[in-house]
Amino acid sequence: MTEHSLWRFARALHRSLSERQTDQLDAVLDENVDWAIYGPIDMFPFFGTRRGKHAVIATVQQISDAVRLHRFDREAIMLADDSAASLMRYSLTPANSSRPISVRVALFTHFRAGRLTSLRAVIDTFDLVEQSLGRQIHLPKIA
To answer: Given this model, what pLDDT does residue 111 score?
Structure first.
């Protein structure tokens, strides 16, 4: 049995985020990769959609400049032949702060010929914004 493409991509992504080394990431991205991280782009400019290998690598470099990754845990994972879904928890620190942040991310990926062709990341942004601001956000009750 061969290794699933998700594992190669995950190692390359985490190396890029932790060590700022993008050579392995370059090798696992499709030239026309379609990438989207859903969240408040006004607060996190590396959120949003990107198209193409060079745009994705630049975005990952922006993320690695903004945060220091300390730990990640896979809470759940589902693998298919050319796709995968995973629920991750990342522990990180903003580059301009010593405040620890824990964020949950759901990743949905598609691969072709061992290369990432599509990534969708859904982040618990309400919790992320509260932790980034260092205070609770009080919302009115609806019901």
So the answer is: 98
- Concatenated DSSP letters of the chain: -PPPHHHHHHHHHHHHHHH---HHHHHHEEEEEEEEEES-TTT-TT-EEEESHHHHHHHHHHHHHHEEEEEEEEEEEEE-SSEEEEEEEEEEEETT----EEEEEEEEEEEETTEEEEEEEEE-HHHHHHHHHTSPPP-----
- Identify the pLDDT of residue 143: 65
Determine the Cα–Cα distance for residues 15 and 21; give it in Å rounded to an integer.
6
Question: Could you report the per-residue pLDDT of 32-73, keeping only the tens digit for each?
Answer: 999 999 988 888 899 999 999 999 999 999 999 998 988 889
Mean pLDDT of the region 18-23: 88
User: Of 92, 103, 95, which is closest to residue 38 (Cα–Cα)?
Assistant: 103
User: How many CB atoms are located within 10 Å of the residue 9 CB?
Assistant: 23
In this structure, what token pair is assigned to residue 125? 């942004």
- Whether residue 21 is predicted with pLDDT greater than 90 in this model: the reply is no
CA dihedral 81, 75, 43, 62 (to 10 degrees): -60
